[in-house]
What does this fold into?
Amino acid sequence: MASERQIAANRCNARNSTGPRSTSGRKRASQNAFRHGLTKRISSAEFDREVETLARQIAGDTEDKLKIELARDAAEAELELVRVRRVKVALIERVTAFGGFDAVDPLPAMPSQEPQRTAEAVRRALPDLLKLYRYESRAITRRDRAIRAIARRSKTP
It folds into this structure.
């Protein structure tokens, strides 16, 4: 149990931790969830068809409802993984084309020859690529968990 002194200190610290104070900082922070669109769940008829097609390939010719549902989870996670990887490739291509995103701190010119140009683009995009790792690892975990559950289900009669 926290003492009265700890509670008072926590409240004091909380008052000082209110996020960005400047207008530009607040505006930038308000757009964090919309940076790449990966937090938004995909729902469309075409996506549902892709999930169902891939799930049928994963599950095979089974009528086991649980196995089909696990296959759908795996298929959805795999398509999410494909989406994350597309965003990563687009990020690298954008940096390759434009050299970077920061207009405030101009970077030296991009090399003109390949593979140095692509290597420099990846180096410059690395901080943003690391941020995308969270979405990629989440999709991989979901997919692998569903596949393992299907395999366990296939082993038991």
